[in-house]
User: Which sequence fits this backbone?
């Protein structure tokens, strides 16, 4: 048993370890170690294509995570107030949304948006003087939208768990102490679920930052970091790619660890 | 309660009122046409077994449940549709419901800070400090909630409510989570606090001892209905049914048939008693005799067999078997036992009680 388990872990982590290892290669090969150096990191960060892709990835991750956090929180709160049957249905749908493969989300978002643009663009063309009509197309906005949609499900799942664990009598106590519903939300509910929102935001950010499949379909001409990595691999793997991969990996790991710490710490204080 | 205060209470104006208030949760009628007037300044207790609707009654006063039919009045105003946050009423929750992300002082100040215009900071701080003094937690303001013990959290919850000087303070089994000794202490403290503040207290409990020791009046509930309301003395001495007598203190019950006047036949014998219900001749009634009303003697007319003796300090409880009445619980005071000597289990003895110590009650 132990042997097989070790084998599984080796299988899972060996490729990642290789990437990290060769990112410190002093030579040009991604398979032959020629001495230790952090040169490729500097190289990657000075490559204008890399920095541009990084900027795009950052904008997309930040925007989609923010949108997902706000709307996911609202949806979770609304679900909390719903009756049993309807709530179960929505909960189930949200879990399904998380389990749907990225490629399906990518393709379906692409088709949905292309169809939508196909309807709207002629209308816009008719409304504006010739040649001045704005054209809706795939790009930053559609990518942010697609990521936000997916991340929202993550945020809702995290917050539903948190809200379910929250003592309802806290809200009643607040109302009993003369706080109107919105005052209760602002002073009690929001502070208590805030760690959940923050964790949801970080997970959403990580998801968007790492995502290749959905971005590949709906990013249009925009290049995110994963898309850049994919396209440069076709021209051959250099340790520069390894350095970028390692940086993305580290960013994700740090964010995920922070999210976990926040989620763990919150409920303990409440329970005490 | 001394009778002088009770009669003064009788004249006190109403602070709250239930008028045939019912609350239905699907198939469950949690409150069934509850009618009750709560007087200004009194300490009223809802007493009854689990699920009888005590919390529901309290929540209708707080504004967390609206009656399905009937009405609730606060200070003369019909409040059926008034939300909880507009009612001049505060509640101490069973599990305290203290805000975990706020300090003790912030918890207590919460109600004051919701007022518009916002009260002066110094004034709030002064009131919070006074409330902390009152619940004997001076200087605990900056503490976090989870640094407080159960008993201390209880006091914080109390301070958070009384600092607002509500017209009505509602307490839902506030002492249930405390250990026995602490509970006794808090009972006395609650009572003292109520006298000091002059606020009307409405308490919910299923602990009869707690109800008897603290309340001016007790409402005995059963299945959503109020069975009997009265001072602890009245409920103890003049219960209207077996249910009430059983809930308030211990008693011996003998089921029988009402034989008219003050007579009950049971097990082929006729007993006389004091009539506290209005039975028809031939209907089922219960004879109730409190354990301390029965005298245990060395000779007499009603022979019994001593089954068990439990020494309880200031008095001793005997379980004796009577041929007709079955097992009886008898409470013998220290002095009486010293005079007659302890009765050994297995020995013969005799019981006796004053004719009006036996109460004739409704059987259910
Ligand atoms: N929100 C609710 N939904 C459905 N049924 C309820 C609700 N609240 C109370 N009930 C039902 O109403 C009845 C009375 O409940 P209530 O909480 O008032 O009892 P209680 O006397 O306070 O009991 P306990 O001593 O156990 O707290 C119970 O049968 C309970 O199951
Ligand atoms: Mg209750």
Assistant:
């Amino acid at each position: 048993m132990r042997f097989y388990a070790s084998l599984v872990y080796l299988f899972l982590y060996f490729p990642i370890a290789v990437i990290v290892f060769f990112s410190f290669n002093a030579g040009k090969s991604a398979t032959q170690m020629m001495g230790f150096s952090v040169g490729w990191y500097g190289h990657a960060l000075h490559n204008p294509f890399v920095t541009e892709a990084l900027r795009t990835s950052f904008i997309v991750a930040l925007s989609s995570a923010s949108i997902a956090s706000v709307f996911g929180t609202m949806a979770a709160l609304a679900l909390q107030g719903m009756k049993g049957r309807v709530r179960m249905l929505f909960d189930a749908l949200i879990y399904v949304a998380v389990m749907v493969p990225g490629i399906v989300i990518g393709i379906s978002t692409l088709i949905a948006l292309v169809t939508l643009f196909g309807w709207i663009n002629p209308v816009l063309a008719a409304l504006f003087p010739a040649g001045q009509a704005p054209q809706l197309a795939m790009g930053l906005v559609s990518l942010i939208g697609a990521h936000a949609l997916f991340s929202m499900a993550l945020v809702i799942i995290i917050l539903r768990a948190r809200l379910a664990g929250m003592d309802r009598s806290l809200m009643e106590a607040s109302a009993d102490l003369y706080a109107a519903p919105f005052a209760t939300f602002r002073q009690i509910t929001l502070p208590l679920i805030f760690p959940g929102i923050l964790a949801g935001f970080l997970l959403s950010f990580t998801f968007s930052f790492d995502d290749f499949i959905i971005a590949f379909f709906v990013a249009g001409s925009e290049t995110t970091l994963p898309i850049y990595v994919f396209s440069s691999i076709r021209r051959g793997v250099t340790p520069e790619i390894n350095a970028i991969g390692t940086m993305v990996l580290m960013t994700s790991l740090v964010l995920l660890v922070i999210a976990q710490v926040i989620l763990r710490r919150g409920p303990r204080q409440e329970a005490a | 309660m001394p009778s002088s205060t009770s009669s003064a209470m009788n004249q006190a104006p109403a602070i709250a009122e239930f008028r045939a208030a019912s609350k239905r949760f699907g198939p469950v009628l949690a409150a069934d046409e509850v009618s009750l007037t709560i007087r200004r300044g009194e300490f009223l207790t809802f007493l009854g077994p689990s699920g009888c609707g005590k919390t529901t009654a309290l929540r209708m006063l707080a504004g967390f449940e609206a009656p399905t039919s009937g009405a609730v009045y606060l200070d003369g105003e019909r409040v059926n549709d008034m939300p909880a946050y507009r009612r001049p009423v505060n509640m101490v929750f069973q599990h305290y419901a203290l805000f975990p992300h706020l300090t003790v002082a912030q918890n207590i100040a919460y109600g004051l800070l919701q007022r518009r215009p916002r009260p002066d900071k110094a004034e709030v701080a002064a009131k919070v400090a006074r409330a902390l003094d009152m619940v004997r937690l001076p200087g605990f303001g900056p503490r976090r909630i989870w640094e407080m013990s159960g008993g201390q959290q209880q006091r914080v919850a109390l301070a958070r409510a009384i600092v607002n000087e509500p017209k009505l303070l509602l307490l839902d089994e506030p002492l249930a989570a405390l250990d026995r000794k602490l509970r006794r202490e808090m009972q006395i403290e609650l009572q003292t606090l109520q006298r000091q503040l002059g606020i009307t207290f409405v308490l919910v409990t299923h602990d009869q001892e707690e109800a008897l020791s603290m309340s001016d009046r007790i409402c005995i509930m059963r299945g959503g209905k109020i069975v009997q309301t009265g001072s602890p003395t009245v409920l103890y001495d003049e219960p209207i049914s077996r249910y009430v007598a059983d809930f308030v203190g211990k008693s011996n019950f003998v089921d029988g048939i009402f034989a008219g006047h003050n007579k009950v036949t049971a097990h082929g014998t006729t007993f006389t008693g004091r009539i506290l219900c209005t039975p028809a001749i031939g209907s089922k009634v219960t004879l109730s005799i409190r354990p301390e009303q029965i005298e245990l003697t060395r000779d007499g007319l009603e022979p019994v067999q001593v089954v068990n003796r439990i020494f309880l300090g200031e008095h001793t409880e005997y379980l004796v078997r009577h041929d007709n009445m079955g097992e009886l619980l008898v409470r013998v005071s220290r002095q009486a036992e010293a005079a007659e000597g302890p009765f050994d289990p297995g020995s013969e003895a005799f019981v006796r009680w004053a004719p009006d110590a036996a109460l004739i009650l409704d059987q259910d």
Summary: The two ends of chain A are 39 Å apart (CA to CA). Confidence is low (pLDDT under 50) at residues 267-272 of chain A.
